[in-house]
Design a protein that fits this description.
Cytidine Deaminase, domain 2, 11 helices, 7-stranded mixed β-sheet, 418 residues, 21 strands, Spore Coat Polysaccharide Biosynthesis Protein SpsA, Chain A, Ubiquitin-like (UB roll), alpha/beta, 6-stranded mixed β-sheet
Length: 418
C-alpha cells in the first residue's frame, strides 16, 4: 500500500485570456509555489504544456491522460501517477499558498481520511487547493469520460472534508488570490527586499551596482489604547509579530484573552481582557536526533531573504518530524516572536515542540524559549555560557552548531533519543 502523503501537483494549464500569456511563465509566481512544495513533498508533478520550463528541476512534467478536460483532467492525470494515497493539488496562479496552510490541511486529512479535503474561503469552495485521494480515481475517470468538466459538480455526494478559512488564522483574504493581470504579480507577495544603488570595491577597482537589501519598518504596538512597545522589524507576518510580542511581554497569556487585533499602517492595535487562564501540564516528549539533524538542514534551506540580502535571521517551530512554521526577520527575536504568534493563532502547544533559530543563543534567547514553554531550543550558531547555565537551571534542552549533519548538545539530554 502506498504511503499516505508525499505527492503533489501544480496545475499549470495554458494561456490566460486576461494575462495574455501562460501564467506559469511568470517565474516569480511558480518559483514561490514550487519552493513551498519542494519543502514538503518527495514527488512533485506539474500538469503543463511547457515541460521545458522544468528540465533542470526536481519535477516531473505530465500530460493529460484524457485531453481537454480542464483542471479536473490535470488532477486525474496526476492522481494516476501519484506515489502516495493522497495528492496535494495547487494551481500555478496562487503564489500566496504556504506550507503552514498545506500542513494544516494534511493534518486534518490524516485525522478524517476523506476522499477530498479542500478549503472554503470568503468567496466559496476552493477545489483547486487541497488533498485528493486515489480512492476516487475510477469515479473521476467515469465523470470525465461522460463529458463532466465542472469541479463543483464532481464534488457533489463525495466524502469531502471542508475546512472553513476561519479555522486557520494564517489564511487571509489574499491567500487564495489569483494572478490574473500583469500588474497584480508584484502585489501578490509582500516585498521584503529592495534594490538600492551601491559602489563595490575590490582589488580590480570599483564599480556601480544595484544591491538587494532587506526592508525595515517600525511597528508600534498598542494594547488597550496604550503604546506598549515599538520595534524595528521586517514588513511581514505583522499579526503573528504582534501576538508573539504581546505574549512575551506578559500581556497576553492565551488567545481567549484577545478581544480584537488589527493592523493599520505600521501599527498593531490589540484589545485584551485578562482572565484566570491556567495552563495544563504538558506531557513529556522525546525527539529523535537524526530527525532533528535533518530538520536543521531543511530549516537552513528555507531562508530565501537571507540568501538575497544576508540581512535577516530565521526561526521555525517543529514537532520533531516536520516544520510547522518558518519566519524571517531583520531581528532574531522578532522571528521567534512571529513563530510564537503563529502557534497562538493555530492552537499549537509550544510545550510539545522544538524552536529553531539561526542566531547565536545568548541568555535572552534561552529565556524567551523558556518563557514560551519550548522544551528544546536548536540553533545553527553558538551558545554563550550564560545561556547554557540558564537552560540547565530552567530545564531547557539546548542544541547548538546544528549544521552539516551534526550538532552539540549542552543540557537536557533526556529529551533526545540518540
Amino acid at each position: 500500500m502506498s504511503q499516505l502523503f508525499g505527492s503533489c501537483t501544480m496545475l499549470a494549464g495554458g494561456a490566460s485570456s486576461r494575462m495574455g500569456r501562460d501564467k506559469e511563465l511568470i517565474s516569480e509566481n511558480t518559483a514561490s509555489i514550487l519552493h513551498e512544495l519542494e519543502a514538503l513533498f518527495a514527488q512533485i508533478l506539474v500538469s503543463t504544456k511547457n515541460p521545458a520550463l522544468y528540465a533542470e528541476k526536481r519535477i516531473l512534467p505530465i500530460n493529460d491522460i484524457i485531453s481537454d478536460c480542464g483542471p479536473l483532467g490535470g488532477i486525474f492525470s496526476a492522481l494516476c501517477i501519484s506515489a502516495s494515497q493522497y495528492l496535494f493539488v495547487v494551481p500555478c496562479d496562487m503564489p500566496n499558498i504556504n506550507r503552514q496552510l498545506i500542513l494544516y490541511m494534511q493534518q486534518k486529512t490524516a485525522e478524517k481520511l476523506p476522499d477530498i479535503c479542500i478549503f472554503a474561503s470568503e468567496r466559496g469552495l476552493e477545489p483547486l487547493v487541497g488533498f485528493y485521494s486515489k480512492a476516487i480515481l475510477e469515479e473521476m475517470r467515469e465523470f470525465l469520460l461522460s463529458g463532466g468538466r465542472k469541479m463543483h459538480t464532481f464534488l457533489e455526494n463525495k466524502n469531502c472534508l471542508i475546512i472553513e478559512a476561519s479555522e486557520l488564522k494564517q489564511v487571509r483574504a489574499q491567500t487564495f488570490a489569483n494572478i490574473n493581470h500583469e500588474k497584480t504579480v508584484d502585489a501578490a507577495s509582500l516585498e521584503l527586499t529592495e534594490k538600492l544603488p551601491a559602489k563595490r570595491y575590490n582589488k580590480q577597482g570599483s564599480s556601480e551596482i544595484d544591491e538587494t537589501v532587506a526592508k525595515e519598518i517600525s511597528l508600534q504596538l498598542f494594547c488597550n489604547g496604550s503604546l506598549c512597545d515599538e520595534v524595528a522589524c521586517s514588513p511581514s507576518a505583522l499579526e503573528e509579530m504582534a501576538l508573539g510580542r504581546l505574549y512575551t511581554l506578559g500581556l497576553l497569556h492565551d488567545m481567549s484573552e484577545l478581544q480584537e487585533l488589527s493592523i493599520r499602517d505600521s501599527a498593531a492595535f490589540a484589545q485584551i481582557e485578562a482572565n484566570d487562564f491556567k495552563p495544563t501540564k504538558a506531557e513529556q516528549k522525546k525527539f529523535d536526533a537524526a530527525c532533528l539533524t535533518a530538520l536543521s538542514a531543511e530549516f537552513l534551506s528555507h531562508s530565501q531573504v537571507f540568501e538575497k540580502t544576508g540581512g535577516v535571521h530565521s526561526a521555525a517551530v517543529s514537532d520533531g518530524k516536520s516544520l510547522l512554521c518558518f519566519f524571517e526577520d531583520i531581528g532574531r527575536f522578532n522571528a521567534v516572536d512571529k513563530c510564537i504568534g503563529f502557534c497562538l493563532q493555530n492552537g499549537i502547544d509550544m510545550r510539545r515542540n522544538v524552536l529553531y533559530t539561526s542566531g547565536r543563543i545568548a541568555s535572552q534567547m534561552a529565556e524567551k524559549a523558556v518563557f514560551a514553554g519550548f522544551p528544546l531550543l536548536v540553533s545553527r550558531a553558538a551558545p554563550t555560557d550564560k545561556a547554557i547555565a540558564l537552560a540547565q537551571e530552567k530545564g531547557l534542552s539546548l542544541i547548538a552548531f546544528a549544521r552539516n549533519g551534526r550538532f552539540n548538545m549542552y543540557c537536557g539530554y533526556e529529551r533526545v533519543v540518540f
